[in-house]
Structures are given as C-alpha cells and as structure tokens.
Amino acid sequence: MLKKFPRTSIINSMFYYIVTYGCQMNVHESEKIAGILHKDGHTACDTAEEADLIVFNTCCIRDNAEKRALGNIGALKQRKITQKNLIIAVLGCMTQQKGFAASMKEKYPYVDIILGANNLHLLPYYLKLNDRKNSLKIEDTDTYDINIPVDTFRTSYPNAWVNIMYGCNNFCSYCIVPYVRGREISRPPREIINEIKFLLDEGYKEITLLGQNVNSYLCEGYNFARLLSDISKIDKKFRLRFMTSHPKDFNKEIIDIIKSSENICNHIHLPVQSGSDRILKLMNRKYTSAHYIKLADAVYENIGGALISTDLMVGFPTETDGDFEDTLSLVKRCRFSQAFTFVYSPRSGTLSASMPDIDKETKKHRITELIKRQNAITKEISDTFRDKTAEILIENESDGIFTGRTTNGKLVSFKKSGSYKTGDFATVLISVSKSASLTGTILLDANLANK
Ligand code: 5AD
Ligand code: SF4
After folding, report:
1. Strand ranges (DSSP E) for 21-71?
2. What is the set of domains in the chain, with CATH numbers?
3. Backbone angles phi, psi at 341, to 5 degrees
4. What is the pLDDT of residues 291-343, one digit of tens each?
5. Does the C-beta of 62 come closer than 6 Å to ligand 1?
6. Index of the ligand 2 atom closest to the CA of residue 213
7. Which of 220, 236, 242, 427 has its CA 20 to 30 A from that of 165?
8. Quick check: pTM over 0.70?
9. How many Å lie between the centroid of ligand 1 and the Cα of residue 234?
C-alpha cells in the first residue's frame, strides 16, 4: 500500500498518481514513468485525489480506452480551478496521433503537459520548466532516442517485464500502432540479457519479454529464437514468457527452442483476429487460416501441455455472416485456452478507417456469440486440470488467498499455508474448475525448488 508521507526536502517534490490505460506494455511503461518520477524526488500516493501531479498514460489502440482517458481528463476541469498547483500530464501513444496535441490544447486547455510515448524520460525536465513558468503549456511528441535507459519502479513482482523491441512494421489495416509507435527497433541482445541477469539476481522469478511482434526481433545476428535460447540458458530457476507473437513470424525454430528449454513457458499468446481468409487479407495479416491452424497443431504436437491464447476481432468492415462462421470454426478447431475478444473500431489514419463500417447490432450479436462459444471451450480446458497437480508460481496474496499461474498460463487460487509467500513455487492439487480459473490446495510435503 502506498502512503502519503510528509514532503521530502527536495524543492518542488510532488505527490503523483499514474492512471494507466491499455495493455501490459503500457502497464510496464507506467513502471518506467514511476521510476523516472521517483528518481526526480517525487512520491507516489494512493489516490488521484491526494495528488499534485496526475499522469495519464494513455492508449489509442481501441476506441474505448481512448474515450475513457478523455472522459477522466475532462472530469478534472473543475478541480484544476480550485487546486491551482495541480499538474496534469498526458503521456502515451494517444498523444502521438496526427493532430491530437493541437486538438487537446483546444478542448482541454487546462492540461499542462502533453508528451509523446517515446519521450517519457523528458518528464522531469518539463515538470521543472512548467513549474518555473507556471502557466506554460508543453507539448513534445517528437521522437528522439527511444532506448534511453530509465530506472524502472517495478510493481509486478515476481514477474518483471522486459522490452526487447519497440514499434511495429506490420501495418495491419485496422491498427494505429505503427503510426503512433513508429518502426521496429530491437534492443541489443547483450543489453537485454544483462538486464535479465540483474533482475534474476534481484529475486524476480518470471521474465516476460515484451514487443508488439517479438517474433520479428532482429539485432546483431540474433533472431528471436536465438535470443530466447540464450536467455533460457541463464542458470537460475525462473519462468520465461513473451508477448506478443505474430502468426506470420512465429515458426518451427521458435517452437523447437521452447520444446527443448525447461524454463520457457508452454503458453503462447498468438493473436489470430479472424478465421476468414478474405477478412485476414483485408486486415493485411499476411497469413491464412490454414497456416494458423498448422502452427497451432505444431505447438500442441511439439510442446508438452501447451496452451494457446489469442486475440479475436468481430465486425471488421464487410465481415459477412459467412466470415464470422469461419471465425467460429477456427475457434472450435484451435481450442484456445483464452481469447481476448474485441469489436472492431475504426482508428483515424489507418487503411480500414476508409472502409464502410458494419452496423452496431450485428457487431453486438457476433461478439456475444463468440464469447459464449469461447467460454464453453475455456471451461472444457479448465476441467482437464481437475484432480491433477501443477507447479504454480505464487504471484499475489490477498486476505490469505494466493493466486498464481501454471506454466501454461491458467490462473489458480488457493489458501495460504505453511511458510509460502509471493514469489515461491508451490505444488498445488487442483480441485475446482470455474470457467477461466482454477482452485486448489498446496501440497505441503511436495519437493519444491525455491532457489
Ligand atoms: N479495433 C478493435 N480492436 C483492435 N485491435 C487493434 N486495433 C483494433 C481496432 N481498430 C485489437 C487486436 C489486437 C489487440 C491488441 O487489439 O485484436 O491484437
Ligand atoms: Fe498492430 Fe498488427 Fe503491429 Fe500488432 S502486428 S501492433 S495488430 S500493426
């Protein structure tokens, strides 16, 4: 629990609160923003109400995350009048959209700082500038050097997120990411491996490699498979995960490395988006449903106990009932352990934004049907865990209940017992299966490897 302590002696030190929207990548970026603010002498507080500095770490991939951020920023208008010293900073990829900063300055003139997604490290500089000149409005969404090392304030122990690359080259026709995050840049392998060695020495038990398309990692003669292989050879007990993969780049070489490495988790997040070849082509995904099914089969055949999760989108422009049926068939065939389901929303500047959007009712009907079908599969997969034991990395504790995951990504909750604590590996006997999650009991006499 974060507390509001008396101000430190550092001049202009502030209490800050970060509001995060979007995916895990943004959660990790908020850890970087927190690290930058701590280093600059500021202190986190529990609620936005207590803060002198509110940072919105925004996301514009989907319409709803953007709407929520704008709604919350809008709600601060009154408070800014009564709390004169309040600083509002808007960061993240929403600010990188063409024309966004100008429109924000017009519609939300009380926002003090608008900073591009690649300029997080400049926040302290602009906070000082803002402070000195008081009412100066700052806007900087240019991209300088996105790989500036920052002190990360990690909040997800025993997991540590590690970016291996930034940006995206794929230009899926519905997606705004390449426009707001720029082209792919891979971090040097030595830098990544050294960071992971440091994190493991610090006691982290799980490393999750991050990138929009980690499979296309390429730097200094390393491809993704080689990078995975080298990381997995670090001599410590830990779990190695990665996200997100792309079906056009995920391949047998990567599957073989996962198969031969004990610590690379047998859970692959492999977004398929649609089961219709016509829609996949319009989406510019560069694979067919047959290719995807072949990949999924290869994962299941080669990697023991593997589970695959995915992202699915309904209501892409021109999607017919037949296209949607193709998606349902693929879902049935691939048996995903979990699916993140989205209703298509046009993003300004993308290719598909100029295609005719289909009606809301059809979209609603399709998403409801898709979720229903996937939930049934998720439950069937959960049922296969009953009366079996699994090694769980304890990730959280709340009111005497632990939660953690199996190597293949199923969430399990169980009563705290013995001397177990967050970050320990426990052998758990699973007794109850709900739709997505499982419940079990720690086997206290199991031979554990908590090194
Ligand atoms: N509309 C709806 N969903 C989208 N996604 C990306 N862009 C859009 C959009 N315009 C979804 C995709 C992607 C996930 C991160 O967000 O499914 O895999
Ligand atoms: Fe967007 Fe496609 Fe890149 Fe993923 S791979 S970030 S969906 S453009």
Report:
1. 43-44, 53-58
2. 15-140 (3.40.50.12160), 156-265 (3.30.750.210), 389-449 (2.40.50.140)
3. -110, 135
4. 999 999 999 999 999 999 999 999 999 999 999 999 999 999 999 999 999 99
5. yes
6. 5
7. 236
8. yes
9. 35
